[in-house]
Amino acid sequence: MKKLSEIGKDSVAVIKTVNGDLRFMSRITSIGLTPGCTVTVIKNEKNRPLLVYSRDTMIALNRSECDMIEVEIGGKTA
Amino acid sequence: MSDSNETVIALLGQPNSGKSTLFNALTGMKQHVGNWPGKTVEKKEGNFEHNGRKYLVADLPGTYSLSANSDEEMITRDYIASGKADVVCILADSSQLERSLYMLADYAGITVPCFLVLNMSDVAKEQGKSVDAGELEKKLGIPVVSFSAPDTKSYDIFYKTLERAADQKTVLDPKNLEKRYESIDNYDRIRTLIPDNVIPGYSKTWLAAKAVEGDAPVIAKIRAAVSGENAKAFDEAVSATGKGVVVSGQCKFEWIDELLSGTVNKKASSVSLGKFDRLITHHIWGKPVVVLIVILGLIASFIPALPLMGVGQLVAKIPDPLNEAMLSAGCPAFIAALVCDVFLRSVSFIVQMLGFVFGVTLVFGLLEEIGVMARISYVFDNTMARFGLQGKSVMPFLISFGCTMGGAAGTRVIDNWGQKVLTIALAWAVPCGAAWAVIPMLSTLFFGAWMPVIIAVILIVMILHMWITAKVFGGSLVKNTDRYGMIMELPPYHKPKWGALFRYVFGRTKDTFVRALKVVLIVALAFWLLSYTSTGDITASILYKVGHFIEPVTKFFGMGWQTFMAFIASSLGKEGALGVLSTIFTGSGTISVGSVVGGAAAENINELLVANVPKPEALALIFAMTFNMPCIVALAATYQETHSAKWTARIALYYTGVALVIAGIAYRIGLLIW
């Protein structure tokens, strides 16, 4: 398993676990990033928020918080 | 406000679901904006009539879910529980249906009648997606309508759906979601322990799901309603839920997937960023592009602004001839001055500024509606997070270099009230166009070639000021719960709804005019009375006497009574300071509102200033003026946007105090140099 922030551009991954405090878990769930869902990393550059595509939505995520999302590479495009 | 014949609709939807557009389109100019009692959250209500039936629309705060993590979410939940709403209108974005139906899933289990609006169907269509609303209706048990705000035909269907939901009191069927919840550890155990009617309108299913999610207020409510063995069992079950919020989230999305299978057709679309998005998310070009967009937006704001500015200037031509005419007709000078100098000049001043507010509201409202604002937020999020603000705050800051009132009007696109007030509070520190017209001139006059250094120091002080102000006000305005790293979606671009946008902009401009007129008239009148003398000798005015009396205090901040008068005048309008100094040093007549807002100065004002004001005092004045309250119209605009007299007064007093402190420091540094 890898952290979401370690996934390179254009890679597809499946979310395995979401960690963090209740508020973060609740917020990340409400935007659709739940275990089992497929994400495509659109942009992953240093010092910039990560851009991922999931459930028909382009989502910008703070880098440090991406560390709390664990994923496994693979799966079909979201 | 609400009477018994009115049907109350509450709009519920995630940010970017098109909720505000629908609200504006429905209610147009009949809106009242305030705050929820005791909360730093904006409350918007509006009225409309359709088919002879009256409606009250409550625009609930934009939230991502119905959890208990923010004031916005708590207000939304309490409002629904209060029974005030006859029907809840839940919005989802058709182009991102899977994600945006989360709100509906989170609503399932609430027994207040509702219906579903699948908004932005035009965008979905462009993306090759189509939704079978009828099929969804069958599965959910509530009316469902495909809707696109720019399409006028959509509204007929919307109204029909609304009437159907309100008349039949349609309740969302949570059966299939319930089945999924049952697979969650401890869900069943908790559900059986919940007594009836813990919170009105919220079923046991909903309450049990929230308890599993670790929702503190719900757990406390249930806990208060159970006792004995049950209480112990409940505590045990709740403490064993662990990551319940993630698991129940999975259930909700599985339910959504099941709902959408067979009702949504979509072409396999390739996932990539458009040209503009590639540019704006670029790590080097992103920020310059945003700054360029805001500057272009600012320039574009002047196009709709010019006619109003012209009207304002026409009004400014009336007072002088009218004054003469009134005097020659035998009208007392006192009354002529009130009408011409106080009233007409105030109106002229406001109308000119209002043009800019109109332009800014229109242009930046448009950028918000088509989806550009969300990108701006993304690009500047990291930078603005240091102030506890959203990325969007960069836009009002940049506008404030032109006009603080425009900057305040620009904060309308910030959806969090606390962050909005904080943005305005920080935007005041940005020297506006009027300051840029006066300060470099004064700096050159007194300090010659050192002018660029003074401007550079002003910019450094500006950043420090903003940083300190963010610390001072940030704590109470922006809760820690709102200060987390960015998690936001970049919505697809969509077409604006011109009619609704214009009605909204006209409505807001009208409100600003009324409010600004009140504030400006009161302040202008007070200033005029204080400076009025029957003889025309300034030393006979109350203002002079007070100024003279407190001179020992103002001296501490580096200013004698004359420059202190100028400082006070500069809080009405920066150009005014020169007019006041001119009046004082030439000893000609009373300080008029005209000289304050118009900045009319004697021709030899430069020589007079250099002869009468020593360099350290001049330096103090320059800094005091720059960082003083921007002007009365900005004050009025701040009141209009924050709709909080308390916060407006707090910010104004803070700025006056800080300007004096900065002036005192500048003065002492000046004394060391000269």
Your description of this structure?
The complex is a heterodimer of chains A (78) and B (674). Chain A is an alpha+beta fold. Chain A has a single domain, classed as Ferrous iron transport protein A (FeoA) (SH3 type barrels). Chain A is globular. Chain B has 33 helices and ten strands. Chain B has 674 residues and is an alpha/beta fold. Chain B folds into four domains: 168 residues, P-loop containing nucleotide triphosphate hydrolases (Rossmann fold); 91 residues, Helix Hairpins, CATH 1.10.287; 210 residues, no CATH class; 155 residues, no CATH class. Helices cover 63% and strands 8% of the residues of chain B. Chain B has a seven-stranded mixed sheet with strand order 2-3-4-1-5-6-8. A two-stranded antiparallel sheet of chain B has the order 7-9. The model of chain B has no long low-confidence stretch (mean pLDDT 88). Classes of the chains: A alpha+beta (78), B alpha/beta (674). The interface between A and B is large, with 39 and 37 residues. Strand 5 of chain A pairs antiparallel with strand 10 of chain B.
